[in-house]
Amino acid sequence: MKIKCIELTKEDFAPYGMVMAGANVTNFDPLGPSDDYTYTATTVGVQMAAECCSGMLICKNRDMVVSKMEHHAKTSEILVAVKNDFVLCVASANEQKVENDKIKAFKVKQGSVLVMSRACWHWIPFPLNNQNAEVLVIFRDNTGNDDLVYADLSEDIEIEL
Q1: Closest to 79 (Cα-Cα) out of 125, 121, 47, 41
Q2: H or E stretch including 17?
Q3: pLDDT in tens, 112-142
Q4: pTM of the full predicted structure?
Q5: Rounded to whole angstroms, how far apart are CA atoms 18 and 52?
Q6: How do the residues of the chain divide into helix, strand and coil, expressed in percent and rounded to 5?
Q7: What phi and psi values does residue 138 have, to the nearest 5 degrees?
Q8: Which residues contact 161 (CB under 8 A, 6 or more apart)?
Q9: Which residues face 66 on adjacent strands?
């Protein structure tokens, strides 16, 4: 099965979470401009755990094929595109399985910040431009040890740019 990658927009990503900031902060209204800074509130209502952890995910260049996905039932997950653009595959939260025909692939530009909803299925981002991508990941403390659920897909999904 093949799916076409689409550009990331707040509206298209809404079923999976929130776009906190784009590669260039557009469509957000500044709240506190001054000579020294401009503060822009990019989102509200982000639900995070009392204690969180972070990690740096280095996504290696590879074929854009997804055969399984993961999710976290106890936490939302923040992704910060630190270095390089990438493709992120997601599917709506479903405790049991991933529905292949519901998987979406988004082009995420360096500098973007996303919040994936709790239990949103996703897979390791695919870097673009033949370079590794660096992604800062923030979620509930200890998630990697006690809240990492995998599901095999009924068939492989090939991502087309």
Answers
A1: 125
A2: strand 17-21
A3: 999 999 999 999 999 999 999 999 999 999 9
A4: 0.88
A5: 18
A6: 5, 45, 50
A7: -130, 125
A8: 5, 64, 87, 107, 128
A9: 157
